[in-house]
Amino acid sequence: MEHHDKLGRGMVLKTEFEKDPKRFEKFSRTFKNEADGSEILFDFSKNFLTDDTLPLLVKLAQDAKLEELREGMFKGEKINFTEKRAVYHVALRNTKNEKMEVDGQSVVEDVNSVLEHMKEFSEQVRSGEWKGYSGKPIDTIVNIGIGGSDLGPVMVSEALKPYGNHFKLHFVSNIDGTHIAEATKNSNPETTLFLIASKTFTTAETVTNATYAKKWFLETAKDEAHVAKHFAALSTNVKEVEKFGIDSKNMFGFQDWVGGRYSVWSSIGLSVCLYIGYENFHNFLAGGNAMDHHFRTAPLEENIPVIGGLLSVWYSDFFGAQTHLVAP
User: For residue 28, how far is the Cα from the chain centroid?
Assistant: First the structure.
C-alpha cells in the first residue's frame, strides 16, 4: 500500500517513457513456443508501474503461496476448496501425455479417449460421411449451452474464424426465445446438427432451448428416431441424454474437475472442433499446453500469466479498479 500511495494517481505514462527510453524493454516479455517457433509478445509497459512495482508484486505472490498452489494444481490436488475438487483443465490439453493423476488415478487415458471420439465424430461430419435423416450432409452447427458451455466456445470460434469456413455456426444461450428462433430461422432441419452442452443435462435454460430445437426439428422430420442423427450431447448424464432421444454413442463426457469457465478445452469444445477441424483443434490444445509449461516453469518475474494476474490484483486491490481491458 505504501508503494501505491507513493506512486500516487498522478502518474503520466508519456512522461515515464520520456524519462526511461528502456521502459518497453523492461516491461515486456516474449513467449517462444519451441514446438512451432511462434512467439507471443506481452507488453505491459503502458501500466502504472515503476522499477519497484514488479518485485513487490512478485513478493506478494510468494507470500500468498502462489508457487505451491500452482504445483498443487498441476499435481491434481483439490485446490478448489469450495467444491473440494481438482482444477485440472491443464490435463485436457496434455498433448505430450505426461503423467497426470487425481486421487492416485491416471486421467490421461480418459482424456485421450474423449479426444479420439471427438476426432472420429468431427471427421465424419466434416467429410460428409455423417448424413442427416434425409441423406444430406450437415452444413449447420447449433451449440446450445450457457455460461462456460457457451462463452468459451463462442470466443475461441470467433478468434479462429479464418480456419472455420466449413459450417454455419450458431450459439444459443439465452432463454429468451428469440435467440433459438434466430439460429433456426435460416437453418434446414435436414442439414442441422445440434450440440446440447450441459454436464447434468438438467440446466433449465439449456434444456428449454434444446426442447424447442427438438420440436422445431420434428415438425419437419416427424419421426423421433431421426433425433439421433441431428443431436449430440456434451454431458455426463446418460439417463437424461437417452430420455431426450440422443443416442449415447453421440454423447461426449468430461470429468468433474473440469470447471465451467475452462471447459472449452474439453468435449464442450466440440463445436470448435467441428468448425475448425480436429487437427487445428489439437494445435489449439498444444498451444495451451506450451503456455502451461511456461506458467509452471518460468520464474515469477518472467512468467507472463503470473505477471498478467498480478497486474489484475494491482489494479483491483490497490487502485480499486472495477473493469479490466485486455487488448489483443
Answer: 25
CA dist., res. 74 & res. 86, Å (int): 9
**Number of residues assigned to the chain:** 328
Spatial separation of the C-alpha atoms in residues 272 and 169, rounded to whole Å: 9
DSSP state of 11: -
- Measured CA to CA, the distance from residue 312 to residue 292 in angstroms comes to 19
Residue 326: per-residue pLDDT: 76
CA angle 167, 151, 278 (to 5 degrees): 40
283-294 residues labelled b (16+ CB within 10 A) or e (exposed):
bbbbbbbbbbbb
With 0.90 as the threshold, say if the pTM is over it.
yes
Contact 256, 85 (CB under 8 A): yes
Dump pLDDT digits (tens) for 266-281. 999 999 999 999 999 9
The residues near 249 (Cβ < 8 Å, ≥ 6 apart) are: none
**Closest Cα to residue 184, out of 154, 224, 214?**
214
- Which residues are 168's β-sheet partners? 140
